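Hypothesis: this fold can be encoded by more than one sequence.
Test: take the C-alpha cells below, design a sequence, compare later.
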C-alpha cells in the first residue's frame, strides 16, 4: 500500500524532530520567561455569541495545491477580524502547506485575536516552539500521536499557558482526547488518510463530546448553510480555511458565516 498524505507528512516531521538536539529544558525556560501572555483561545470561543469562527491563514494544501500563495498574513488577519472572527488559525508547515512561523507572527501582530499554530506536532520541541513563536494555542492530532505523546504534549502546552485544540476523527479518538485531559476538541471532517471530506462526520461524532468540552468542527465548511446543523449538534466553533481564503472578500465571507448562526 502506498504512503498516504498523513504518512508522508508525519514521516517528514518526525525526521526533523529526530535531528533536533536543542536542550528541551532550556527551551521550556525560555518559553516561560517570555514577557507576553497568551491570549485565551478557548475563552474567546466560549465568549462568542452564536457559532465562533476560527479563520485560517492558509497558502496551500497537499490535496488542493495552491490556494493563495501570495497572501499577506497581516492583511488577511485584519480582514478576518473585521468580519467577526473570534480566533485565527495559521499554518506553519512549510513543506506541505507553504506556511511559516513568520506567517503566524505577522498575523498575530496585526490583530488582537488569539492564534493557534496549525501544524503537525510530533515532539515536545514542537509544543515549546509554538509558545516561542508567539502562538496562543497548539494543535494536537490524535491520529498522529500515541497516548503517552498526546498526554505529555497536552500537559506541557498547559504548563506553558497554551490552550490545546485536540483534533479527532471518530468516537474512539474523542475518548483518547478526553483521557489526555482535552477541554477543546475538534472533529476534522477531512479524512487524513485520503484527504476526502465527509460533511456528516462532525454531526455523527458530536454526541461523544461532553457538554463541558468546547467542540470545534473542522474542514469541509464551504458556505453559511453548512453551519446551522453543526451548531444544532452542539458545536461552539467552526475552523474554516479554504472557502475564506478563496472568497475574494474574506471579511464579508466571515460576516456571512457569523450571521448564519447569530442569535
Amino acid at each position: 500500500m502506498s504512503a498516504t498524505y498523513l504518512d508522508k507528512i508525519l514521516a517528514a516531521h518526525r525526521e526533523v524532530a529526530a535531528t533536533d538536539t536543542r536542550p528541551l529544558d532550556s527551551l521550556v525556560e525560555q518559553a516561560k520567561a517570555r514577557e507576553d501572555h497568551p491570549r485565551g483561545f478557548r475563552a474567546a470561543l466560549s465568549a462568542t455569541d452564536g457559532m465562533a469562527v476560527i479563520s485560517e491563514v492558509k497558502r496551500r494544501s497537499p490535496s488542493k495545491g495552491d490556494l493563495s500563495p501570495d497572501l499577506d498574513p497581516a492583511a488577511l488577519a485584519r480582514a478576518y477580524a473585521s468580519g467577526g472572527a473570534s480566533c485565527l488559525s495559521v499554518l506553519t508547515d512549510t513543506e506541505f502547506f507553504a506556511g511559516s512561523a513568520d506567517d503566524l507572527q505577522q498575523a498575530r501582530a496585526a490583530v488582537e485575536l488569539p492564534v493557534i499554530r496549525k501544524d503537525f506536532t510530533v515532539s515536545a520541541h514542537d509544543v515549546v516552539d509554538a509558545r516561542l513563536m508567539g502562538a496562543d494555542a497548539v494543535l494536537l492530532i490524535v491520529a498522529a500521536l500515541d497516548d503517552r505523546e498526546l498526554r505529555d504534549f497536552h500537559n506541557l502546552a498547559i504548563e506553558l499557558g497554551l490552550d490545546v485544540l485536540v483534533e479527532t476523527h471518530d468516537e474512539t479518538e474523542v475518548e483518547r482526547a478526553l483521557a489526555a485531559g482535552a477541554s477543546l476538541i475538534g472533529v476534522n471532517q477531512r479524512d487524513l488518510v485520503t484527504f476526502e471530506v465527509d460533511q456528516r462526520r462532525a454531526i455523527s461524532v458530536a454526541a461523544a463530546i461532553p457538554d463541558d468540552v468546547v467542540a470545534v468542527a473542522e474542514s469541509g465548511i464551504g458556505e453559511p448553510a453548512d453551519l446551522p446543523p453543526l451548531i444544532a449538534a452542539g458545536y461552539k466553533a467552526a475552523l474554516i480555511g479554504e472557502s475564506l481564503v478563496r472568497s475574494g472578500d474574506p471579511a464579508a465571507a466571515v460576516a456571512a458565516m457569523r450571521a448564519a448562526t447569530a442569535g
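The radius of gyration is 17 Å. The chain has a mean pLDDT of 94.
Hypothesis status: open.
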